[in-house]
Design brief:
The longest helix is centred in the middle third of the chain and has 16 residues, at 124-139. A six-stranded parallel beta sheet has the order 1-4-3-2-5-6, with helices on both faces. The termini are far apart. The chain has helices spanning 8-16, 35-47, 65-70, 75-84, 95-98, 117-120, 124-139, 151-163, 193-198, 201-207, 209-216, 218-225; strands at 3-5, 24-29, 50-55, 89-91, 143-147, 169-173. It is globular and about 50 Å long. It has twelve helices and six strands. The chain has 239 residues and is of the alpha/beta class. The protein folds into two domains: 3-173, HUPs (Rossmann fold, 3-Layer(aba) Sandwich); 191-239, no CATH class.
Length: 239
């Protein structure tokens, strides 16, 4: 049975009863779980005798308050999702457990966050690294599982563990995608129909010509007849 834990003191009592030979695997999430998270949980279940997941929407990693406010929160569904995949513990702390006071100390991640996603989201990866470090300190796992979908995040967590000598092995798990190539994401549920139809375009462009031809048909054939040979742009020019 999956137990939901909300307080660090409660987790400490549980951890005190875990035998030394047991191996704790940890999957940190912000909830609204999907099959991408399922792949992380399944990999943790294969490697570890005990699996814990966290569900916490971390306020200090959001650049826009509205993004934080509208981030999907479906704890009851998430608990059922985890239970179906054999998760032993869910750590779902309230905000005042993670941040009982104004946070004064942060994990700075340096140049690793200065490009790609981090370039347009100042402070985001500082917030991610800080909450991950706090969760590592609270739960003290031997393994932690992160998706390769957020590859910059994965790289930063690996730097964190190495540079700060955190005794956790970070495991990257391949991206899980929809049939049209769109990576599974909790935020996908916020897309309207038009946005959802455009969302796979960038992946399609990188994936190569056969997939582009299948999705865009005549549009891509016109592109070919014009003498182009590389991946096409989305018909909307938004990729």
């Amino acid at each position: 049975m999956t137990a939901v834990v909300q307080r660090v003191a409660e987790w400490n009592r549980i951890a005190a009863g875990i035998r030394r030979e047991e191996v704790l695997g940890f999957v940190p999430t912000m909830g609204a779980l999907h099959e991408g998270h399922g792949a992380l949980l399944e990999e943790a279940r294969k490697r570890c005798s005990i699996v814990a997941a966290s569900i916490f929407v971390n306020p200090i990693q959001f650049n826009q308050r509205t993004d934080y406010d509208f981030y999907p929160r479906v704890l009851e569904e998430d608990v059922a999702f985890c239970a179906a995949r054999g998760v032993d513990y869910i750590f779902a702390p309230p905000d005042d457990e993670m941040y009982p006071e104004l946070q004064r100390v942060f994990v700075e991640v340096g140049d690793t966050s200065a490009h790609l996603c981090g370039r347009s989201r100042p402070g985001h990866f500082r917030g991610v690294a800080t909450v991950v470090m706090k969760l590592f300190q609270m739960l003290r796992p031997q393994f932690a599982f992160f998706g390769e979908k957020d590859y910059q995040q994965l790289a930063i967590v690996r730097h964190l563990v190495r540079d700060l000598n955190v005794p956790v092995e970070v495991v990257g798990v391949p991206t899980v995608r929809e049939s049209d190539g769109l990576a599974l994401s909790s935020r996908n549920r916020r897309l309207n129909a038009a946005e959802r139809s455009l969302a796979p375009c960038l992946y399609t462009a990188f994936a190569g010509r056969p997939t582009v031809d299948r999705l865009w048909g005549a549009e891509y054939r016109r592109y070919q007849r014009a003498g182009h040979s590389g991946p096409a742009r989305c018909p909307t020019n938004q990729a």
